[in-house]
UniProtKB/TrEMBL annotation:
One of its GO terms (molecular function) is cysteine-tRNA ligase activity. A motif ('HIGH' region) lies at residues 32-42. Belongs to the class-I aminoacyl-tRNA synthetase family. GO terms for cellular component: cytosol. Binds 1 zinc ion per subunit. It comes from Paraflavisolibacter caeni. SMART domains: DALR_2 (SM00840). This is Cysteine--tRNA ligase. One of its GO terms (biological process) is cysteinyl-tRNA aminoacylation.
Amino acid sequence: MSTLKVYNSYSREKEEFVSLVPGHVGMYVCGPTVSGESHLGHARPYVTFDVIYRYLMHLGYKVRYVRNITDAGHFEEEGREAEDKISKKAVIEKLEPMEMVQKYTNLFHWAMQQFNCLPPSIEPTATGHIVEQIGMIEEIIKAGFAYEVKGSVYFDVKKYAESHDYGKLSGRIVEDLLTTTRELEGQDEKQNKTDFALWKAAPPQHIMRWKSPWGEGFPGWHIECSAMSTKYLGKQFDIHGGGMDLLFPHHESEIAQSTICNHVAPVRYWIHNNMITINGRKMGKSYNNVIKLTELFSGDHPILEKAYSPMTVRFFILQTHYRSTLDFSNEALQAAEKGLKRLMEAYEWLKELPVSQLPVSGDGQQTDNELDERCAKLIGELDEFMNDDFNTAKVLANIFELVPVINTIKDKNVSGGGLSVETLKLLQSQMKLYVEDILGLKGETAAEGDKLKSVMDVLISIRKEARARKDWATSDKIRNQLAEAGILLKDEKDGNISWTVK
RNA sequence: GGUACCGUGGCCGAGUGGCUAGGCAGAGGUCUGCAAAACCUCCUACAGCAGUUCGAAUCUGCUCGGUACCUCCA
């Protein structure tokens, strides 16, 4: 079997993945800022890293997956009036800051559950780690790479760059940054434009504030991730993930902070997902094209022609490689919806097939060798594709090639449908592994109540009787009226009747 | 302005030198009381120009077009 290769944003190359501690992986992913509702764009990293998390576990690693909750807020515009994003909106909404934090944290967790994302091993909050952040800042000052001005502390990027390669991750040149960074007001506290805040003095109206050696204030944006990743994963850990837009300045600054404190590069593999765009533009507040997840699920947004289910969105995201941009459109989502439905119907049928009761090959079974080999090949390639930088798009392409094979077995009502029992068993087990365990897809109508099921059994049996005596009027009446109620009946080839809730 | 990246058939999207990606839509067919579904077949593209090569969507150069980051951002 091939070995796992991941694209490392730091080296800009695919590298063989070797964990620091054999059998274990430490993974840190930048989590949400809980000052508002999550939108479609936020779904991408969480789905992407959920699949990576699942796949690493499948490979046998014991993974510690840390994803933070940013509940302390940062400044809206660094250098200008430092305003805590969270406290600012809290005033508008007339909420206690922590009440709002709780509300959006709950909403975020709900959304993650909808997407069938596994919870991380540890989900630390920024406000819960003020002590660690202050400790780290003190160390950076002691090392001579930060300075205090009027109760605020800044990281000295220029000095750091003299002995370290600040800008390597994001492809930036410090000299250029020094000259081209935009002119912002109130930069006078900083020695250089490139410096970033580790701690900001809180103005009097600021609600969220903590005592520190430099007076009352709040932590800078980047320090929380450095503090929490170090605490839970160590001075050096395997994977750090997040959206590409976090490369600069967030992750670049994280490297600088952690390197000064821990004397080692903090991260071995940087993994960044690309953006979701709408009409070719990145989804973001400044573009006014944000679709919140609640709107996406309800269809209540001018851009949306209809509601899209969480699994449709998850599937939509996984059809594209995580490092490509993914363009949202109603057409694309509806295509994903239909494709997913076809996939899941075939898969759920296969899951119930009593493969283990079938006789082994050679017992009068006709095996189509060509088909058998093709299937075995398609199945075998799945690991290769995942090992090649988590290529879920290719995995899904192969799975879709297996769908007609499954449906043929179903239609012909043949035990093996030309496949050897060995291949059939492999097909069943690998489809479960990939569809459910690794890609994390699940049927959305599976959770129908037992009572509905028994009602449907009655209706279906009546309809079968009507059909047997060619009473098409009764037969059609049952089907049509159920269709109006949103339940679709399908007459299968073998005389069975299946149903799905629309 | 600086730095990256991208431009694939009606739509979405894999794919880094030669071999059908895949999904959705569309056309034809099989099956079926009808319908739906399913299955089979077809539609075979790579922004433009020039170059490297036996051979390029894939490498090089230029042109055009687009996006992202440089400020909070997934």
